[in-house]
Amino acid sequence: MNTDILQGQWKQLKGKVQQKWGELTNDELDRIEGKREELIGLVQEKYGRSREDVEAEVNDFLANFADY
Question: Are 65 and 6 in contact (CB under 8 A)?
Answer without folding.
Answer: no
